[in-house]
Every structure is written in C-alpha cells, then in structure tokens.
C-alpha cells in the first residue's frame, strides 16, 4: 500500500501559476502549477489573477501530484483540501490560460471559460495575457458651448414715429419705467413699433 502523499502549505503566491510551499519538514520550495500559465506581471488581468489565486491558496494545505522535482523547484498538480484540482478551477473561472502541453481535460476547462467570456477572456483582455490591457478609448469630446454676450442696447436715437422727434423708448418696459405709458399717436415717444394692434395706443 502506497504511503499517503505529503501535504504542503502554501506560504506565498507569486502568480496564479507559481506558488511557494513548505513541506512537512518545513523546507520551502517553489511550485510551478502543471498545465497552466498565468498573465505576465504587466499583462492584462494580472492583478485580478493574482488576487484570486491568493484568496484560493494562501495558507491553504494542498497535495502535490504528478510531481517533477529539481533541487529547489517543483512542477506539480495542486489538489485542494476539498479534493478539487486547482488548475481546472482556475481555467474554468478564467484566471489562467492552459499551457501548450496541457492535457485535454484542462483544455476543455479553458474552452468553457472562453465560450462564457469570463475572467481574462472578457474585454478588454480577450485572452491576451502577454501584453498590458489596451488603453480605453477616449471619451467623445463634449461640444464646446460658446456664450454670446448680449449686445448693448442701442443709444437713444430719434425714432421714426408719428410724432417726429421725441424721447425714444426701445420697448414698453422702458416706457412704463419712465411713467410715459400708454403712448398715443402724436405724443412724444409714441412709436408704431410699440403699437402692436395699430390702434393708435402703444404700450396699453
């Protein structure tokens, strides 16, 4: 009967495909998650990917399978405490992409996220995790609003009126302010322009 696999504790998340663990003896190793690749450090969706992986893995106990070891690093699949495969979960939710040599099960998980346009498959990344997010389109320029200063009232002039030369009232408000309204045809200040109904009485 094979001994149970060692359980490791995740002590640091470098990115969604690279973590640091300690083994049961306290030795610290870097683990590359088998079959996935995370967004580049400056790539589109990198902050969201790291934040999600940190929530999923930091201080969690994981089991490593399909282990390939070097002096300091490991390449392995990560089984979470509930028995689920971390790489599959990360691919289904769109936080990593499948590596070139990923097995078909991982590629199927990635295809699900791609079809649903979730995570890094949604705009603006659209699956491109090797380049920074494209700059947002500039907002349309607001139309320039120009204000036209009111033209000064014309200087009092001799009005073309039935009364010849007379005080000039540009409107009925001015005539009323001067206590001259109503104005009758023939009186000083009367103007046909102020007599709308042309009955001989302006500013009634």
Write up what this structure looks like.
- By secondary structure, the chain is an alpha+beta fold.
- It has two domains: 7-121, Beta Barrel (OB fold (Dihydrolipoamide Acetyltransferase, E2P)); 156-204, no CATH class.
- Helix content is 19%, strand content 22%.
- It has four helices and nine strands.
- It has helices at 46-57, 86-92, 104-116, 172-177; strands at 7-15, 18-22, 28-33, 36-37, 61-69, 73-79, 97-98, 183-184, 201-202.
- The strands form three sheets. It has a five-stranded mixed β-barrel with strand order 1-2-3-6-5.
- A hairpin with a 5-residue loop joins strand 2 and strand 3 (28-33).
- Helix 2 packs parallel to helix 3.
- It is rod-shaped and about 120 Å long.
- The termini are far apart.
- Residues 156-164 have low confidence and may be disordered.
- Residues 4-123 form the TNase-like domain.
- Residues 168-204 form the Excalibur calcium-binding domain.
- InterPro entries: Excalibur_Ca-bd_domain (IPR008613), SNase_OB-fold_sf (IPR035437), Staphylococal_nuclease_OB-fold (IPR016071).
- Residues 142-152 have a biased composition (Low complexity).
- This is Nuclease.
């Amino acid at each position: 009967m094979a001994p149970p696999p060692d359980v490791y504790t995740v002590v640091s998340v470098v990115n969604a495909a690279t973590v640091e663990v300690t083994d049961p003896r306290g030795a610290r190793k870097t683990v590359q998650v088998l079959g996935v690749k995370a967004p580049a450090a400056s790539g589109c969706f990198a902050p969201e990917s790291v934040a999600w992986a940190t929530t999923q893995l930091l201080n969690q106990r994981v089991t490593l399978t399909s282990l390939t070891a070097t002096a300091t690093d490991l390449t392995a699949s990560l089984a979470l405490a509930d028995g689920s495969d971390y790489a599959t979960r990360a691919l289904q939710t769109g936080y990593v992409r499948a590596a070139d040599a990923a097995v078909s099960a991982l590629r199927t998980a990635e295809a699900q996220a791609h079809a649903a346009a979730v995570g890094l498959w949604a705009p603006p990344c659209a699956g491109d995790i090797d380049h920074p997010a494209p700059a947002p389109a500039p907002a349309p320029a607001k139309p320039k609003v120009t204000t036209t200063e009111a033209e000064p009232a014309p200087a009092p002039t001799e009005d073309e009126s039935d009364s010849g030369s007379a005080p000039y009232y540009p409107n009925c408000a001015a005539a009323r302010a001067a206590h001259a309204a109503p104005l009758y045809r023939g009186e000083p200040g009367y103007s046909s322009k102020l007599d709308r109904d042309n009955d001989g009485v302006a500013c009634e």
